[in-house]
Amino acid sequence: MAEAETKAKWYVVHTYSGYENKVKANIDKAIENRHLEEEILEVRVPMEDVVEVKNGSKKTVQKKMFPGYVLINMIMNDDTWYVVRNTRGVTGFVGPGSKPVPLTEAEMKPLGIKTENISVDFAEGDTIAVVAGVWKDTVGVVQRMDFGKQTATINVELFGRETPVEISFAEVRRL
Questions:
Q1: 111, 135, 150: which is the final residue of a domain?
Q2: 155: number of Cβ within 10 Å
Q3: Cβ(100)–Cβ(93) under 8 Å?
Q4: What is the DSSP letter of 111?
Q5: Is residue 83 part of a domain?
Q6: Distant-in-sequence, close-in-space partners of 152: CB < 8 Å, separation ≥ 6
Q7: Based on the number of CB atoms within 10 Å of its own CB, is 23 exposed (0-12), middle (13-18) or buried (19 or more)?
Q8: CATH at residue 137
Q9: Pick from 21-25, 34-38, 59-63, 147-151: least confident
Q10: What value, to the nearest 5°, has the Cα angle with vertex 79 and ends 78 and 80?
Q11: Contact between residue 141 and residue 127 where contact means Cβ atoms under 8 Å apart
Q12: Does the residue 116 lie in any domain?
């Protein structure tokens, strides 16, 4: 899996306006059905918090940063290109002609997508302690790791139930 993450690049896909979440769901389903988890690593619809004022009251809502576009972290090959390009709602990859062009580091930085390779001293199944943030002083077993988002998912006991919680790599240490 580490090898796949070094070859994968972020691409921008143009969609019909308003179909971004549907396209994300369709691509996620295609990844699952065709077993492309190692080649298409993540599909993202970038969102941002916007404060709206209606009838004199402020309300924070999430809006799409780029309406009509979806970001995909994938290894470009004929199979992945075909699956994404032929997904319902996709009009094409962003790039000259039919050749998709990956995003550069500079273009990805403002999106909050980290690309630098990070190495951690824990893996799935290891017990870790949370050393910062909301879940500080919590101990849990790593269920899942997402190197793209640089997060680990652990189960914590909440209201007497095991609940999965996503925590940044920076906020944990191995026990």
A1: 111
A2: 14
A3: yes
A4: G
A5: yes
A6: 120, 122, 128, 142, 144, 145, 146, 166, 167, 169, 172
A7: buried
A8: 2.30.30.30
A9: 147-151
A10: 95
A11: yes
A12: no
Tell me the pLDDT tens digit for each residue of 28-72.
999 999 999 899 999 999 888 888 888 888 888 888 888 999 999
Q: Are residues 131 and 106 in the same domain?
A: no
Domain enclosing residue 136, as ranges: 127-174
Instruction: Give the integer Cα–Cα distance in Å for 96 and 52.
Output: 37
Q: Answer yes or no: are the C-beta atoms of 139 and 156 closer than 8 Å.
A: no
| Residue found under tokens 């576009």 | 69
Same domain, 65 and 98: yes
pLDDT tens figures, 70-82:
999 999 999 999 9
Residue 14 CB partners (closer than 8 Å, separation 6+): 68, 69, 90, 91, 92, 93, 94
CA–CA dist 1, 36 (Å, integer): 12
- Bridging pattern class, strands 47-54 and 57-64: antiparallel
Q: Token pair for residue 24? A: 């994300």
> Which residue, among 74, 76, 87, 111, has the nearest Cα to 20 in the 3D structure?
87
Token look-up 């940063």 returns: 65
Tell which of 77, 111, 145 closes a domain: 111
pTM metric for this prediction: 0.61
